[in-house]
Specification:
heterodimer; A: alpha/beta; B: mainly alpha; 23 helices
Amino acid sequence: MPKVDQFESAFRAASKTVFEYQPIAVRSILVITDRSKSEADIFGKQISDFLSVLRSDGSPRWRIVNGSEFDTVPELLALVEAEQPDLICTYRHLHSESWRWPYTLGEYVDVLTQVTTPPVMVLPHPDATRASEHAVKDTLVVMAMTDHLTGDAVLVNYAARFTEPSGKLFLTHIEDEATFERYMGTISRIPSIDTENSRRTILEQLLKEPTDYIRSCREVLEAEGLPIAVEEIVTKGHHLHEFEQLVEKHEVDLLVFNTKDEDQLAMHGLAYPLAVELRQIPLLML
Amino acid sequence: MAFPGLQEAAHPEVPFGTTMLFAAILVGLIASMALEEKLHAKKSLIVGIFAVICLFLGAVLLPLPFGPYEIGGQQIDLPIYIPAINWGVIAIILGASLFVDVTAKSGLFTWIAIRLTKSSQGDPLKLLWYYGLMTVAFSAVLNNVTAMIIVGSLSTVSLSKLDRSDKLLGFLLIEGFLTNVGGLLTLISSVPNIIVGTAAGISFVTFFLKASPFVAVATVVSLVIGAKVFGIRSLATGEERAEAARLVDGFDENDGIESEAFFWFGAVMLILFIIAIATASVTPYINDLGMGFVALTFAIVMLIRYKHEVDTFYQTIDWDLLGFFAALFVVINVMEHAEVLALIGVGLERMIALGPTLGTGAILVSAALFSSVTDNIPLAAMLAKIISDIPMAGGGIRPPTDPLWWAVIFGANLGGNLTPIGSASTLVAVTIIHKQKIPLSFASFVKKAAPFALAQIVLALIYVLFVM
């Protein structure tokens, strides 16, 4: 005799999260630097060329902030508040030499990503030589990264907006292997649960949901006429290690991920290590 | 004792006191079944204990016909509790439930359910009608409990997706009531049908033709009452309709289909199963082998797909239900030898003597009232046995068209809607309701169920007495 839970599970599995396309409008961009005005303008021009994709629906308004315009975090936040930009572009360790040591983002970027509403694009430091060869040239290869892609329409919409026509958008979902193995270890100690069957079916289901969602993203974006190719990467592994490898393997031009966490003031668990470690390409932190 | 009728009923070899002792045991069994939830014991165990007591006391106090038994001209030594069991009924239940289980793996039932959900566009009133009709159809083709599980689970998930969980109680109750209406549609739709239909010699086709007009009317009436009582209405604005349509569009009916070939195989086999069951009584050879053979054959054919893991399906068999049946048949057999059934038959004869209208009506209402407080299966099994032993006014065998059979069938099925313990499917509905943390006491169930059950029973009375 079938069980209630058996059919409830079947119907829940059949109930898919459908991607909802929302065009992202980027009409004003605030470029924050700690350089002199002339150097800041050069940096601003480089960013403008890099983000040429944003001109597709009219040229956005650019405002380049130079180093003399702020000395403290409150001053910087006041600047952002006054400009009300749709996007902030900056780099690590403003007004600091700490960029030489790859361990933090620096206090300005830390606060910007958590306090301000618009997404923050963190670019390789102008003085550092760590940037990849293909970095800050175009956005033909954009990758959206998360450990929970299903239902994250904002992440996908932003990533799609920054992908150049005929470019590739990688939608990436990595299930954390360590967490998975910890639960499997617990299951393996419960006699009433079939360990092998659980391992197989749980992993299948964990990977199926983002796969289904990516299919929905692809269908909707195609239907909306966006001239980009949506590629799917859904796997299990060590988060940071996998992401680093994927960025390198696919020569990603822009990495998009979430940073804000509703439950805490600090950055989202995966975002901080990603932002610190991946210094060779631009990062769009939502 | 001042019960001349009862004294007359007693078999000369069985002292009246012994008959009364076994009658008391039967009352104890019925009371225990009614208190099944309170006892926190499975029904197979409850009836199993009574079967053991009955057999032991029967061996001591009754002239039980111990073997060897003559089967096909051969003397075969069997324990008395083996021929006491109606293996035909057990085979139908076992085969049909296995067949349904394996067919469910093809994704066929979830596909049908989701397609209907999507075609409703998420409109609550349309959803109620579609789910109601689906409940009746599934109850008729599968069985009440499976139908309730499928439609109840879908209702929970889809109403939650549509953000209409406030209507879930109404949906689940209406679906629960409709399982017992749909359970009247065919001979294999519910166990009382199988038991009484087999005893009465009613064919599948005759059963369907006789019952379907009532089922159609009772379904429509129940849905109309349900929509009114639980305030289930159509969406008012275009915006609401568009949002609901978008949400149900997120269901993927193909999600549960592992193999398209097996899906179609399951669909074809289901149709063939219905045809085979429907024609079993007129198909040469199959007629001799019975519907149980058909059900088991289809189950075995479906299991070939899962030949390496058939044991997983054996684990899902409701052994509690099968054990319950086996033990129940043993108890009834002993009760027959103890002349308890003859004793009840005397009471029934008095009821029947009230006349074709009043008597049959009284049987229907009594069957409904009894099955509302205890399991309708023992009731149906007992009444089937008793009625088949009560002689016709002009002598001869009671024909399948005799309204008495139908009074028992309608009463036993519909009585289950009066209380939450009246039928297995309403119990499943209440289980889902409680699982969703929706408060519903016994009394409030009865209060909500009363308009539905009364309307259905009144309709059944009119139908059995004046239309059939």
